[in-house]
Amino acid sequence: MTWTESGTTRTVTADDGVRLWASRSGRGTPLVLCHGGPGLWDMFEDVAGLLGGLATVVRWDQRGCGRSERCAGPWTSERFVADLDAVRAHFGLERTALLGHSWGAQLALSYALAHPERVSALVYVAGTGIGPDADWHGAYEENLLARLGEQPERFARWLELTDRPQRTAEEERQRAVLQWTAEFEDRERAPELAERMADPWFGVNAECNKALNAERKRTWGTPELYTACQALDLPVLIVDGERDIRPRSAVDSLERALPRARRVILPDAGHLPWAEDPQGFREAVATVL
After folding, report:
1. Looking at residues 22-41, what average pLDDT do you find?
2. What is the pLDDT of residue 5?
3. What average pLDDT does the segment 79-92 reach?
4. Band of pLDDT at residue 22, cut at 50, 70 and 90
5. Fewer CB within 10 Å, N- or C-terminus of the chain?
6. Position 155 in a domain
7. Distance (Å, rounded) from C-alpha 25 to C-alpha 178?
8. CA distance 272 to 210
9. Distance CA 155, CA 221 (A)
């Protein structure tokens, strides 16, 4: 266990022996955060600071990503749900609130469906709902290109890097930062905020990303998933940035299915709403903590 100024950093061992990085800080209601991706790492340092007075916040890097042990998978939602349960158990949490962002929102929802008795509340941030990819992915790609196209020189560089069959680690980072600028409504601050996402930089686990995205395309959008969400008897807070380039209408499917859902839309925020409206985000999350 390593002590840091913000709390404790620990190694959590999953049931198959893979080591996961985790960190705990703050005090109050337990809250486990699930980062986006797939294939990225925890970028919730600001969120932990924002919510530290409301909750005991647990952050972790998902298997094969960030500061967690590099491994060969398996890259399945079932495996990641089991890893999340290992994190919960490691910190001695009988029940915990979950906050998931983007892909992490899907993971947190999957965990709540599998283990509702271990979840006190779910905060679903900037997810894409429970429908098929056709509900949002085409519009997302159009919006991404339109946002990037607002800065022709940066757009040209992004296209150049995207078209390269092989990239160095620094080129991978540069391409990601350029793409992440599209995630923010505040176009002046977007480069700064995107750089913050990449500091520190651990590299994207492309294999993990490809496998879990393919799994979602096969298994999401089914009547069985909708029925399972209808039976989820937990308080769920859905938080969206209205200016997210993923159409927020995709989340309507989840809101309709859940029996105890409340939705907050932050009008001046994009895909990372805490970065552009921290007060609104904190006030929203506080209602379920």
Report:
1. 97
2. 34
3. 98
4. very high
5. N
6. no
7. 31
8. 22
9. 33
Work out whether strand 19-26 and strand 55-60 pair parallel, antiparallel, or are unpaired: antiparallel
- pLDDT at residue 6 is higher than 60: no
Per the domain annotation, does 169 fall within a domain? no
Rounded to a whole number of angstroms, the distance between the first and last alpha carbons of the chain is: 27
What's the whole-number mean pLDDT along residues 53-69? 97
State the maximum Cα–Cα separation within the chain, in Å, rounded to a whole number: 51
Three-state DSSP class for residue 232: coil
Residue span of the structural domain in which 12 resides: 2-136+206-286
Q: Using the structure block, give the residue that is written with the tokens 């809101």.
A: 255
Q: Average pLDDT for residues 200-217, to the nearest whole number?
A: 97
The two structure tokens encoding residue 7: 């709390």
- Report the amino acid identity of residue 279: Q
Tally of domains within the chain: 1
Query: What's the full length of the chain, in residues?
Result: 289
Between the CA of residue 41 and those of 7, 105, 135, what are the distances in Å? 18, 14, 26
What confidence tens digit (pLDDT) does each residue in 117-165 have? 999 999 999 999 999 999 999 999 999 999 999 999 999 999 999 999 9
CATH number at residue 40: 3.40.50.1820
Burial class, 34, CB count within 10 angstroms (exposed 0-12 / middle 13-18 / buried 19+):
buried
- 129 Cβ contact partners less than 8 Å away, ≥ 6 residues apart: 135, 136, 250, 251, 252, 253, 254
Q: Determine the 3-state secondary structure of 271 from DSSP.
A: coil
> Is 154 within a domain?
no
Helical residues (DSSP H) of 33-165, grouped into ranges: 45-51, 77-90, 103-114, 137-148, 152-163
* Alpha-helix runs per DSSP H in 6-123: 45-51, 77-90, 103-114
Rounded to 5°, the CA angle 120-123-126 comes to: 160
Residue 251 dihedral angles phi and psi, to the nearest 5°: -80, -10
Closest by alpha carbon to 104, among 33, 35, 39, 205? 35
